# Entry
Amino acid sequence: MRLRRLTILLVVGVVVAITATAAAARINSARGTTTITFWDAYSTGGPEVQHLEKVVIPAFEKSHPGIVVKDVTIPYDSLHQKLVTAVAGGQLPDLVRSDIIWVPELANLGVLAPLDKVMPSFKTMSKAVFPGPLATNYWKGHYYGLPLDTNTRIWLYNPAALQAIGASAPPANFSQLQSMSAQAKAKGYDLYAESGTSCWNLCPWIWSNGGSITNKTYTQATGFLNGPKAVAAIQMLVNLYKAGEMPGIIVDSNAGLGTYDGINQNKYVGMLDGPWALSIFASAYKKTQLAASLVPAGPGGSVSVVGGEDIVMTKASKHQQAAEEFMQYMLGTYAQTQMARAGQMPVIKTSSKWLTKIHPYYATYLKQIATAKPRTPTPKWTQIDQVITTDVAKAFTGSESVQQALTEAATQIDSLLK
Amino acid sequence: MTASSSSTPGSLGRSAAALRPRRRTASRRRREVLSAYLFLAPGFVVFATIILYPIVRAFQISLYQWSLVPGTASKWLGLHNYGRAIHDPLFWRGLENAAFYMALTVPAQIVLGMAVAVLLDARIPGRGFFRAVYYIPVVTSWVVVSLLFRYLFITEGGFVNSELHLHVNWLGQRWTAMLVLGFLGIWKGIGWSMVIFLGALQSVPAELKEAAAVDGAKAWARFRAVSLPAMRPVIAFVTILLVIGGFNVFISVYLITQGGPLQETQVLLTYMYQEAFSYLDFGYGSALAFILTLIVFVLALVQLRLFRRPSEARA
# Structure
C-alpha cells in the first residue's frame, strides 16, 4: 500500500514538473524570448569578461528585446577540449569565440555554418573588417566565421632595464639584437626572453628574415621551412641561446622565470607579446611600465604573427537569426570600442581612426599587424605546430643542427599537409 | 522424472509424494537464485554502463579512423592503429616512462608505507596526529601538489636548487624529470598504503604474536614470521592497485612537464590524451588506451598468480 502511494506521488510529481516546464517554455515563446549561448575564453583575470558581461551584453539585450545571451566563459586551455567533447556529444552552443587556428579544424569537421551561404548580412560585414583577420575564417571555398578581435606580437620591454644595460633604444634590427644581447649579458640581463619554440614564438624571426613555413598554397614545407633563410633565422637565436644570452625557458618552461616575472624582476629586458600583456602588467605588475616597439627587422622586414579570435556560428544552432544579430552587434563600433578598452584589438576598418585614443600602444600594434602573417590554415595545425616545437627545440639543445632539425620537421609537415 | 519413468504403477503414489518436497526445495532454490540475480542486477548495470561499455566502445573506435561528428561515417582500419603503435617511438617512450614510474613508485610506496604503518601501530605519543599527518598528502589535490612540485624544482629560482646551491635542470631532462615525478608519486602515495597496512597489522591475531614472543622471537622475527604472512592478501591488493595506478600516471605529468621537453617525459596516458584531444585522432588514442588496458590486465593476472599461497597454487 505504502509503495503504491509512493508510486502515485512520484508519477504526479513528474507530471507536474513536465507541465510546469512546458508552460514556462510556452510563456517564454509567447513573450518571444530567444536564448543564444556564446562560448568564449575571455580572460577572467583582466577586465575582458567584466566588460563583456556588465557592459556589452546588457547593451545588446536592451537594444534587442527578446534575445537573451547566455555567456559561458571557459579557460583558454580547456576550451578546445570542451569543443571537441561538445562536437562528439552534439551539444555545441550557438556561437563560439574560437581561436583563429581552430577554425579550419572545426570547419573541416563540418560543425560550423558557412556564413557566406547562410548569413544574408555576411557580404556587408566582411567588407567592414580587415582582410587579414577575415582570411583566417576561409576554408575550402567558404567563410566559416568573422573576425572578432585580432592581435599580433610586438617587442615589449622594460625601459628601466634597457637603460641599465646602457642602451638608449630597443633593438630595431637583427644585428642590433645580437650586439645588444651580448651587452645585456655583460650587465647580468637577458635582452630577449622567449617562452617556447612554436610558430607563435619563432615564426616572426623566420618571416622577418625572408623565410617561410610552406609554399603559398600550403601544400609543402620542404624547401621552405628548411630553406636557407628560415635556417639562418633560427641559427641566430640558437647562437644567442648557446652563448648564454637567452634564458632557458625557450626550451623548457621550468628552466627559469616566465617572461612576465623575469621582466618584472628586472632579469629580462624584453619579449614579444600581444596587447593583453600590457593590460596584465597594468593590473598585476604595476611597478613595471612596459614600452612597445616593432619586432626587430631582418632582410624581410619586421614581420610578426597574426593572432586573435573569430566568432563562428554552429550548424547546430536553432536560433541562427538571433545569433546573426549578435554577431552584427559584436562587430559594431560600440562593442568593438568597449572590448578595445578591455585590451581586445578591434577588427573593423574604422577602428584605425579612434583606436589610439583608447591606448597609445595600439599604434605600434596597428603598424605591426599591417605586415603580420597568419599561421598555416589547416585542420592539422595543432600537429604541425607540435612538430615545429619539438624539432626546433632539438636545435636549441644541440642534439641536432638547425638544418637537420628543420629538415626533419619539414618532412613530417609535408605528410601532414597531404 | 527419470525416477518416475522407471517406477512401477504401484509405487507411483509414493514416488509423487516423495517428489513434492523435492520440487518445493527446487522452486525455493530458483527463487533464491532469482533474488540473488535481482540484487546483483543494479550493480551489474552500473558496471556494464560505466566500465564494460566504454571498454567495448574504445575497442570499436580503435578499429576506425574515427569521425568525431555523430552520424558521419568513420573509415574502417582494422588493426592498423595497433600496428602504428608498435612502430611509433613515442608509444614506446611513453611505455618506458610509465614502466619506470611504476618501478620507482610501487616498491617505495610499499616499503615506506609498511615502515610507517609499523611505527604508527606501536603505542607512541601523538600516534593519531602522526597518522593524520602522513595521510594529508593523499587527500591533497593532485593539481595543487603538482604545481607546488613544479615550483620546487624549477631550475632558476626553484626552492631545491636555491637551498642546495645546485644548478640542476630537474624538469628539463628526461630521467631527472621522471625522478621528480616519481618522488611526487611516492610522497603522495605513502599515506594510502600506510592506512591499508595499518588496518591489516591491527587485524593480525594478538595471540599469534604473543605465542611467537613466548617462543623467544624478537620484534623483527615476529614481524617477518607472523605479521607479514598474515598480511599477504593485503600486500597483494596494495601491490596490484599501485601497479595499475603507476601505469595510469597522468595528472602530475600533464601539469608539471606536459610530456616535454621534446616529448621526453610522455607517459602512455598523456600521449593518448594528446593524440585524442589535441589531434582529434580518437582511433589511435583508443588503440593506445586499449593497449594500456591489456598491459594492466596481464600484469594484474601475473601478480595474482605470484601472490597465490603455495597451497592455492597446488590446488
The longest helix of chain B spans residues 12-62. Chain B has two domains: 2-62, 89-314. Residues 1-11 of chain B have pLDDT under 50 and may be disordered. Residues 2-62 of chain B form one domain.
